Amino acid sequence: MTQSTPGLDPEDRKIITLARSARARNGVPEGAAVRDETGRTYVAGTVALASLKLSALRTAVAMAVASGATSLEAAAVVSAGQEVSAEDRAAVADLGGADTPVLLAGPDGELVATVAAG
Predict the structure, then answer these.
(1) Radius of gyration of the chain from Cα atoms?
(2) In angstroms, rounded to a whole number, what is the distance separating the alpha carbons of residues 17 and 2?
(3) All residues at 6 or more sequence positions from 6 whose CB lies less than 8 Å from its CB, including other chains
(4) Quick check: pTM over 0.70?
(5) Which domains can be identified in the chain, with CATH numbers?
(6) Tens of pLDDT, residues 53-107
(7) Rounded distance between C-alpha atoms, residue 78 and residue 72, angstroms
(8) Beta partners for 44?
(9) What are the tens digits of pLDDT across the range 13-46?
(10) HEC string for the chain
């Protein structure tokens, strides 16, 4: 369970928890979750097939788009990495706009950074 981070909105805490769960459940390097304009969430892990490679965040954004989302409120990535790639931020910005917050949390669920998508 994600520990309480002071100042973190409960809905943001929820997407970090979902992303962390996806990472653990699927045994993948990253888990991600995004929240759309209606509050629906989309959760994904890293895709690493011979013919298709997608980060967890780009997969979650693709799932939101495929489900009819027209905007994103927030995104979260759980990873051992220390930054969110430019490609991942661009995918969030494409659907949510440049100001959409992208939360980066470590494997323990603790928030490492919050960056704008654009």
Answers:
(1) 13
(2) 6
(3) none
(4) yes
(5) 10-116 (3.40.140.10)
(6) 999 999 999 999 999 999 999 999 999 999 999 999 999 999 999 999 999 999 9
(7) 18
(8) 32
(9) 999 999 999 999 999 999 999 999 999 999 999 9
(10) CCCCCCCCCHHHHHHHHHHHHHHHHHCCCEEEEEEECCCCEEEEECEECCCCEECHHHHHHHHHHHCCCCCEEEEEEEECCCCCCHHHHHHHHHHHCCCCEEEEECCCCCEEEEEECC
Task: State the amino acid at position 58 in one-letter form.
Answer: R
34's CB contacts (< 8 A; 6+ apart) are 15, 41, 42, 57, 60, 61, 64, 69, 72, 74, 75, 76, 92, 96
Token reading at 10: 């409960």
Residues in the chain: 118
Task: Tell me the CA distances in angstroms from 88 to 5, 20, 63, 115, one per residue in order.
Answer: 24, 17, 14, 11
